[in-house]
Amino acid sequence: MPEMNASIKLLDLEPAEDDLLGDVLAGLAATPKRLPSKYFYDAVGSRLFERICEQPEYYLTRTELEIMRDHAEDMAQALGPGVRLVEYGSGAGLKTRQLLKVLQAPVAYVPVEISRSALLASVGRLAEEFPGIEMLPVCADFTQRVALPEPGRPPRRTVVYFPGSTLGNFENAVAVKLLAQMRALVGSGGAVLVGLDRKKDPAMIEAAYNDAAGVTAEFTLNLLARLNRELDADFDLSRFRHQARYDAVKGRIETHITSSCAQSVSVGGQRVEFGEGEAMLVEYSCKYDQADVERMAASAGLVVERTWTDPSDWFSVQLLAH
Ligand code: AVI
């Protein structure tokens, strides 16, 4: 367990451990088969995701950073002084730092993260960099209802920051439910600042999820490698392939792991049969035009107050107000 700076107060809501075996067996018993994308992010998968962000085709991270570089001050002004900034995720990234640097007299920074070790490691670094900001980390699953810690000074406004287009990894109905939970959390006068990828040329989107160096394919197939490591499964990775296609009607990348031949695999002591060409759905990455964002926000009881984009309008950061 990493050492905790004495001034950092952890609120540990003791999130339930993931049921990897139960979730995987349920997904493999479904028709069509599917596996939850949240299981991509073990230590190997998290490192591979960092490498994806550096691939020339994966424009998302670079473009969102550019938006933060160019507009963080304007965002801070729009948020106003005395904000309690709640971040969904550990806040390890540059985007958070860019925002914390320019917020006007923030009252507290509250990262909400399920991994206690990732949370403490990142908040420890942020506490050194921002000694004037009260750090109130919460160990919790942000897809569940979360109770917020009270800062020393009363906040003027609570704002949830959810960067990285992670909301796009949830199906629309679930994304709306998450936004509605954020709305309840921030209360009246609060807001949500969310990074969302844009709809654009399908070839450009597909290239981002099929990089030439094969890092995304390795990231996807690491899910099977993880099941081999943790569930004693015997997936032969050379007999499965990564497939990411953009569905222009649904406005989302759908990533599958496809079996190259008919085969039988053992997972957690059970045999699972795959047909030749059978595809398991492993991830959605939804893309949004402005009308989509407005619709989704309205369904969650929120209003789009401001939108920041890059000059090519490839990515957007949206301020949704309650
Ligand atoms: C984390 N998330 C926003 C990434 C995305 O673009 O959907 C995950 C990812 N999957 C493949 N490449 C990147």
TrEMBL record:
The keyword 4Fe-4S does not apply. Its EC number is 2.1.1.44. It comes from the Bacteria. GO terms for molecular function: L-histidine N(alpha)-methyltransferase activity. Residues 23-320 form the Histidine-specific methyltransferase SAM-dependent domain. Pfam families: Methyltransf_33 (PF10017). It is an enzyme of class 2 (transferase). Keywords: Methyltransferase, Transferase. NCBIfam families: egtD_ergothio. This is L-histidine N(Alpha)-methyltransferase. It comes from Alkalisalibacterium limincola. The gene is egtD.
